[in-house]
Amino acid sequence: MTKLKDLDTYLSNEGPAAIVLKQPMMSVEGEDGIIFPSTYASGDGFPGGYNIDTDATGGNVALIDSIGSQANRIEPIFLQDKYRDLVPQIDVKAGEKTVSILEAGHRAGDALVRCSSLQAELQSAFKEVLRGDATSLAKIAPTSLVFGVWDSRDTQAKLPRVITSTIRAYNVRRLTRSAQYNPATEYVNDQLLDEPLEKSTKDSYSERGFIHVPATGSHGGVIADGGVIRTATLGLSAIRLLHAGNDQARTVRLQRYILGLSLVAFTYNSSGYLRAGCILVSNPNKPSEYLEVYHDGQRKSCKIDHAAAIEYATLAAEDFVVGESRTVSFDRDKAQKDVKGEGTAKSKSKKGKKADSEDSNA
């Protein structure tokens, strides 16, 4: 049976710096199946489309799923019955829609959360982070400590990701595909619609599905001759940076709690549906490898599995005492002030500086 002290070596400076996972993956169609990577908009010299980097030897690496995308896929597992008691369940009601903080793109730093009735409480928690105490934030949004958060629009408090995960495909062959849309009937030839004489009219016909539309040479996925690998890192050294001020006992409880959540997220099998044309599963011919990596470069096999991670996380959550679950409301007035930069720590700081200068001039 797992005990709270069993994993304290992970919180010790003499313990491993990180746990690293190498998980070979493949398409549900097989190792030679076609998979569709993420596509990205053009910008900064990037032409847009698949993110495929080529090295000097002629090999290449395609990004299948980014760190941010992986985090957004894994974090919502804490909404599931199996894991939900490990974290506070905080929802933000905005109009007719209710959104969990676990689904907010920027977590505790998201505009939806920042402009809710949690605003003052969160701002205080972020200020405590800047003073070296992450306890209050862990009571509100502990997964922000696991997957990283930056309060970029207010206090500037920033916490690094404890977990990073990326899926890449190696030595890929890029494919293209073409298609032809045929309307249900010949609207123009049958005089159901007028002949489009202007380009704008023809474009409108095309957009609304009234004429034939060819689509040629678009992205057709890739075949990964060098395989697909999910690489994940659990930064134990990052957890050691979390403190509850100078209180060592509270710091240990906080670090154990975040370690437990991190282990649950890290050992969770996130394979499955990524997007249309990209359903990935573990490769049974190439087993996954969990390694503890030490500061001197030593690499040792890691024995922890998902069941043990849940058991440890449950004990750590009980010891830390999970924060209150609640539903809060999005505040339109707070949002309008936020757009103007009012009510933030930054704006208050400016007001304070102005007052100080006026006092000094008196």
Provide the descriptors you would attach to this structure in a database record.
single chain, 362 residues, alpha+beta, 2 domains, nine-stranded antiparallel β-sheet, three-stranded antiparallel β-sheet, 11 helices, 19 strands, 30% helix, disordered C terminus
Give the topology string: H per helix, E per strand. EEEEEEHEEHHHHEEEEHEEHHEEEEHEHH
- Segments where pLDDT lies below 50 for 5+ residues? 351-362
In this structure, how is the largest beta sheet organized?
Answer: 9 strands, antiparallel
Mean pLDDT: 91
Gap from first CA to last CA? 69 Å
Indicate the structural class: alpha+beta
User: Can you give the helix content as a percent range?
Assistant: 25-40%
Count of DSSP helices?
Answer: 11
Q: How does the overall form come out from the CA principal axes?
A: globular
The amount of beta strand, in percent, is 25-35%
Domain module count: 2
Whole-angstrom Rg: 25 Å
- Annotation, overall tally of beta strands: 19
